[in-house]
Design brief:
Layout lengths: L2 H4 L12 H9 L12 E2 L7 E7 L2 E7 L12 H8 L12 E5 L2 H4 L3 E5 L21 H17 L16 H15 L8 H14 L8 E3 L8 E3 L6 E4 L6 E3 L1 H10 L8 H6 L12 H12 L6 H25 L10 H16 L5
Antiparallel strand pairs: 1-2, 2-3, 3-5, 4-5, 6-9, 7-8
Helix pairs in contact: 5-10, 6-7, 6-11, 7-11, 7-12, 8-11, 11-12
Length: 358
C-alpha cells in the first residue's frame, strides 16, 4: 500500500461530521473550507479524530474529540488551542493552532484547526517503515528524550502560559485523582489487590517526594505523537497537546517510559504495542532516563515514585476503556481485551514499586 494511502482511513471507515455546518462556522470567521477537496481522516488513535482538510486553499488539520460523552478534562480542545496558538513562537516543533470552535453544536464537540505538518508517525511495536531502518532506535531513542527536554526548557511566561495549569499540588491531585478513577472503573468485582496496594503505596510515598520546579508538560509524550520526515526520520512536529499543563517534569519523563517496552518485559508490556522500543536498537528505559538527567540536570533519586504513578495511570486508563466496553458505551472490539491489559499493568507496576525492575 502506498505510504500516503496508509495514512488515511477508507471512506467507509471515516467518522461522520456535519461538514456543511463546519463550513458555515468557518466562513463566519473568515475561513473557507474547500468543499471540493473531501476531508480525509487520518488512521490510528483511540481518542481524537483528525482530518486533513483544505482551508483557504491550504492544507490544515481539523481535530475533534470522538462522538459520545467524554471523561471530565479529557480531549480538551480549548486547552490544546491555548497551548498551540502560543507555543510555536518558541518551540519550532509545535504546530500552530489556527482556530478554536467552542460551540459543540457545530460538530458534536468543540474542535480546532491546526497547521498541517506533512510527515509520518511510527505507531505500534513494529512500524513497517522501521523495517527499512533496523537500527533507527539508536537515533530515535535519544531524539525522543531530547524533544521532551526541549519542551521542559520552554519558559511558559515567555509564550503567555505563565498562569497555565495548576502546578502547585500537581502530584497530590494526580495521586488522588487516579486512585479515585481506579476505584470507580473497577467493575463489579472491585479493584484487583495490586491496584489497592498501589494506591496505598503512592499515598505513602507522596509524603516523602519533593516536587521539582514546574515546567510545561505535554502529559502524553510518546513516539507516535511525533511527526517525522519519512526519509531522514527527523522530527517535524509534536502532536496531541490536549492534556498539556504545567507540573513536575519527571512525571512527563515517567509517562514516556510507561510506553517504553524492553525485550525482557512481561507480556503485558508487549501487548501494549505502543512503541517499537523492544527492538530496532533503542536504548533501555534506564539509559533514556540517564540521558534526560544529563540533558536537564534533574535529580532522579526519587524517580521511582513518578515511574509508578505514570504506570498506574496507564493501567487505570485501560481499565476505564474496558469499563466503557463492559457498560455498553462502546462496542469497539479492541476494548474487549483492555481489562486484561489493565490487570497486567497493575501487576507490573506493583513490581516496579517493590524495586523489581526500572
Amino acid at each position: 500500500m502506498p505510504l500516503e494511502n496508509s495514512m488515511f482511513r477508507a471512506p467507509k471507515d471515516t467518522a461522520r461530521l456535519d461538514w456543511a455546518a463546519i463550513a458555515g462556522h468557518l466562513a463566519a470567521h473568515g475561513l473557507r473550507l474547500d468543499r471540493e477537496t473531501p476531508p480525509r481522516q487520518f488512521t490510528g488513535g483511540l481518542a481524537n479524530l483528525n482530518f486533513l482538510v483544505s482551508v483557504n486553499g491550504t492544507p490544515a488539520v481539523l481535530r475533534s474529540p470522538p462522538p459520545g460523552p467524554l471523561p471530565p478534562g479529557a480531549n480538551d480542545m480549548a486547552r490544546e488551542h491555548r497551548i498551540l496558538s502560543r507555543l510555536w513562537r518558541t518551540l519550532p516543533l509545535a504546530p500552530k493552532s489556527l482556530h478554536l470552535c467552542e460551540d459543540a453544536g457545530v460538530a458534536g464537540h468543540p474542535f480546532i484547526l491546526l497547521e498541517h505538518r506533512p510527515g509520518v508517525t511510527l505507531a505500534g511495536s513494529a512500524p513497517p517503515l522501521l523495517e527499512q531502518h533496523p537500527d533507527a532506535g539508536a537515533r530515535l531513542g535519544p531524539l525522543l528524550v531530547d524533544c521532551l527536554a526541549d519542551i521542559h526548557a520552554v519558559d511558559p511566561a515567555a509564550v503567555g502560559l505563565g498562569d497555565f495549569g495548576r502546578p502547585d499540588g500537581f502530584l497530590d491531585r494526580a495521586v488522588a485523582g487516579w486512585s479515585k478513577r481506579a476505584h470507580l472503573s473497577a467493575g463489579p468485582d472491585g479493584s484487583p489487590a495490586p491496584a489497592v496496594e498501589l494506591t496505598e503505596w503512592l499515598a505513602d510515598q507522596l509524603t516523602r517526594v519533593r516536587p521539582g520546579p514546574a515546567t510545561l508538560l505535554h502529559n502524553d509524550f510518546k513516539l507516535d505523537n511525533l511527526i517525522l520526515d519519512p526519509e531522514r526520520l527527523e522530527p517535524v512536529a509534536i502532536l496531541d497537546w490536549d492534556q498539556g499543563t504545567r507540573g513536575d517534569p519527571l512525571f512527563d519523563l515517567a509517562t514516556l517510559l510507561s510506553y517504553w517496552t524492553e525485550a525482557g518485559d512481561p507480556p503485558v508490556m508487549h501487548d501494549l504495542a505502543q512503541m517499537p522500543t523492544a527492538g530496532f536498537g533503542f536504548p533501555s528505559r534506564r539509559e533514556a532516563a540517564e540521558r534526560y538527567a544529563a540533558r536537564t540536570g534533574r535529580d532522579l533519586s526519587e524517580f521511582r515514585f513518578h515511574r509508578v504513578l505514570a504506570l498506574f495511570k496507564l493501567a487505570v486508563v485501560f481499565q476505564q476503556l474496558h469499563d466503557r466496553y463492559r457498560s455498553g458505551t462502546t462496542s469497539d472490539p479492541r476494548y474487549a481485551g483492555f481489562g486484561a491489559i489493565a490487570r497486567g499493568l497493575f501487576d507490573f507496576t506493583h513490581d516496579i514499586a517493590q524495586g523489581r525492575g526500572f
